[in-house]
Amino acid sequence: MTEQQTAVPPCPQCGSLYGYPDGLLLICPECGHEWTPQGGAEAACAVLARDAHGTPLQDGDSVTVIKDLKIKGSSQVVKVGTRVKNIRLVEGDHNIDCRIDGIGAMKLKSEFVRKQ
């Protein structure tokens, strides 16, 4: 084992020894679980995001788009009422990472979605 592999604790969800650091989080490549080295699974969601109505969002939530959103560099539009399942919260201006059926992977701003 390399020095990096011994420094990263095993994944709390699946026990894999192949986790790696990514910024402030540790990531398991086998199951996709993310956690902080200090807080374990409870502190995994370090990003605080709220939808258009002020409801807190978490990783894995389903949301609905509340406004037509033009996709930059494309003629496609994400229509109002589009449902997005299994979101992932990330740092930055566009703080929702998701996959939309028929469009693909993209980032959204939390101010344009509503939690289901």
Automatic annotation (TrEMBL):
Superkingdom of source: Bacteria
Residue stretches making up the Protein YjdM N-terminal domain: 8-36
One Pfam family in the UniProt entry: Zn_Ribbon_YjdM
Entry coiled-coil feature ranges: none
One Gene Ontology molecular-function label: hydrolase activity
UniProt entry keywords in alphabetical sequence: Hydrolase
Family matches, as InterPro entries: YjdM (IPR004624), YjdM_C (IPR013988), YjdM_N (IPR013987)
Domain Protein YjdM C-terminal per the UniProt entry, residue ranges: 50-116
Protein's UniProt keywords contain Protease: no
The family this protein is said to belong to: Belongs to the YjdM family.
Name listed for the protein in its UniProt record: Phosphonoacetate hydrolase
